[in-house]
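Service request form, structural biology core

Requester: graduate student, group of Dr. S.
Request type: structure prediction, single chain
Budget code: on file
Notes: please return the result as structure tokens.

Sequence provided:
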Amino acid sequence: MPRTLLIVGLLLMSPLVFASAQNVLIIKSANTSFFNSTIEQLINQTRKQIKFQIETLSTIKTNISLLDSSTLIITLGLNAANFLNDKKLNKPIIHSYLTEFQYLNLKKPDNHFSILLDQPLQRYLNFIKYLLATQNIGIIKHKNNKISSKKLIELSTTFELNLEQYLFESGDNPVNMVRELLQVNDVLLSLPDPEIYNRKTLKGILLTTYRQNKPMISYSPAHVKSGALAAIYSSPENIGNQIAGLLNKFLEDKSFKPESHYFASEYGISINHRVARSLGIKLIDKKEILKNLKLEQNK
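Core staff response, request fulfilled:
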């Protein structure tokens, strides 16, 4: 891929440190198909004229001066975000491909903004509401990213359900926690946290849900293929659209002041019908579920 790509894109404006921008540097933590698909969609959805420069983090580390030629930087992945957060750069930086847990553990300079992989918790709960006739939902959260007691009560009241949270500490066995959680709850809601849900633990977690005849609702379509009932997630294209939307807001409104972080705003769903049949769950049409979720999102 050429180092510099000229396209019909975006003349970027920000109230932060510059009135206009012509050069945007995109830094990938690694060269993956996910990142490349996001970048392609981002470029397709930006407006007016802009020059994009696309580099991997390894290239930036060997040629640090590349950071100076841009007026805005976009990072994809945790490693690139960590690298940029240690640099004092007087320009806006948009981070993407971060979970909420990763974001909470990042430094947060004033001119840094993050687009998270996580859906808002309310969206997950609405998703479960349309999928299952259940009252008892269990969640495992890292102790450093726990849901407050007040928030748990508010969510339980709003959605008319019992939402129980188990707290995870480094060194805990998440499989044992799932086993205990599902003895008193009807469904496991798994949320993005690499310490809890990873290659080493996923098989045991899914096997535990299967043995207890309880469904797992996830954030990953890969988990659905492996045996979770369903997932709500953002695709690389969804993420590209959201980054482009943020850039375009800079352009359209000179007074626009970004939030420090944004949850995923675009998403799709994946359902494992084989698992649904084995659990005796009758599901409504996938399109109807998405329609209902969009209606809730726009309220």
